Amino acid sequence: MRIIRNFINGEFVEAPAKRFDKRSPTTGAVVARVEEADFRIVDSSVSAARHSLSGEWSKFTYSQRKDLLISVADIIGRRTKEFVDAEIADTGKPYALASTLDIPRGAANFRAFADLMLRAPQETWTTETPDGRGAINTVTYAPKGVIAVICPWNLPLLLMTWKVAPALACGNAVVVKPSEETPSTATLLAEVMNEAGIPKGVYNVVHGFGPNSAGEFLTQHPDVDAITFTGESKTGEAIMKSAAVGLRDVSFELGGKNAGIVFADCDFDAAVDGIARATFLNCGQICLGTERVYVERPIFEKFVAALAAKASALKPGDPYSEATTIGPLISREHREKVISYFAKAKFEGATIHAGGHIPEVPLTFANGAWIEPTVWTGLPETSAVIREEIFGPCCHVAPFDAEVEAIARANDSRYGLATSIWTQDVSRANRVARQIRVGIAWVNSWFLRDLRTPFGGAGISGIGREGGTHSLAFYTEMRNVCIKL
Ligand code: NAD
Ligand code: 6OD
Fold first, then answer.
1. Which residues have C-beta within 8 Å of that of residue 128, sequence separation ≥ 6?
2. Considering only CA atoms, which of 243, 189, 175, 225 is closest in space to residue 72?
3. What pLDDT score does 84 carry?
4. Active-site positions?
């Protein structure tokens, strides 16, 4: 049995006292035993990170840090197969997805942020003074210190490296707490860090759960300077309470209940493909995914039928088979949550156009967390299915008659992460995009990412923005140096 260990100060530490099982979402079988970090282990990871900040790491120039991060990207590239296998073991996602999205984006994150400090905006201001001599102001960027990186399970390597890469580029040290569901790729990345020559203590990994476990021990640790977190909005509230003690900075990427808006003048096939991708990719477990779709009435029925056909065509199965186009949910526990929304939709009288059940799968997969991709219509906007984040491969589709109505319905949510708008009228696209209260509005696309842009959410979908030089605001302490002449 594979044993997954905590990684502290450049070494894997043995801590067999408390272990938990990691089960495969495809078969339900135990695939690894994970050593859970107690407070003492978390404390030593934070000490190691703190210590590294005054060692050789602090002497690296920006260019040297850049070279190291490029090496990390190169090694992930060279070891892609290992990373893909690890991600599949933890999540069950199809090979085609892990090998084209998760792992390449993990490497791309290091490339995108490697030269962040070399691109930091340079500001100089001359200030008038009564004696006429004046002063010169410059802005410098110092590392923030020890950063806690708390990660979810849906895109494990992608989302973790999206935070670790800028943190290291800015000269910080990190302690990563991957999700208890996906401990493998953060652990594999530890090997890569050593291989690339990242100094000891700069990258640490602790395993465990949230409350009363590694997550809470880390976020409550007084020597952590800042917390970057991706996960549920409710968990964000708990972490914010921990961060309040000692007034630590937070950056939060949280849940979504994203609306797709499809106008009758759209490229119909592209819109159906796009909304299907936004709803079903990664078995619907993407925060940016679309669980509410509003379609202009003239094409409503045709659109629902086409989307339902896409849903029904998805094939669950062996992640390594080319025929497999949808994986399982992350766990049986998460499936219970998703199924509870299926029951609510049925109870409230939804029309089910596709899915709605646990699918028939071969015996080998009978204990996995499989679920049918599902499309509903006919629910009132007050329905829990339309208001709450489900995080499964399902959406409700409703007709609309006017642009203002579509905007109002899209905005009728406490979440505010993303939207995707489908129309061939560029003026309308621009007008609508500007009125939807979200962090990112895609037009005729979805999850098309440029890593230089600000990424984050409005409302309960997040706090702050990361991406490109916007990441400097969180990962550095900006300092104004004022020199009186
Ligand atoms: P989660 O909030 O349950 O857990 C995320 C991480 O937080 C895990 O590592 C968990 O162990 C830890 N944690 C839980 N409670 C904690 C506590 N009290 N203190 C410290 N750590 C704690 O989220 P999840 O189920 O892993 O992921 C799915 C959620 O993440 C969805 O809501 C999804 O929308 C959201 N998400 C958002 C984004 C984004 O960019 N906005 C990206 C991916 C996922
Ligand atoms: O693409 C990204 O940088 C990002 N943070 C994606 C988030 C996906 C949510 O599941």
1. 134
2. 189
3. 98
4. 253, 287
Question: Measured in angstroms, how far is the CA atom of residue 152 from the centroid of ligand 1?
Answer: 4
How far away, in angstroms, is 24 Cα from ligand 2 center? Answer: 23
Q: Which residue has the tokens 């006017």?
A: 402
pLDDT in tens, 118-151: 999 999 999 999 999 999 999 999 999 999 999 9
User: 407-435 pLDDT, tens per residue?
Assistant: 999 999 999 999 999 999 999 999 999 99
Widest Cα–Cα separation across the chain = 85
Burial code (b: 16+ CB inside 10 Å, e: under 16) for 46-64 equals bbbbbebbeeebeebebee
Task: Tell which one of 220, 287, 463 to mutate to probe ligand 1, the residue whose CB is within 8 A of the most ligand atoms.
Answer: 287
Ligand 1: nearest atom to the Cα of 462: 41
375 near 311, Cβ under 8 Å?
A: yes
Q: Could you tell me the pTM of the whole model?
A: 0.97
- Report the sign of the C-alpha dihedral through residues 394, 330, 168, 255, in that order: positive
d(CA 460, CA 447): 20
The distance in angstroms from the start CA to the end CA of the chain is 67
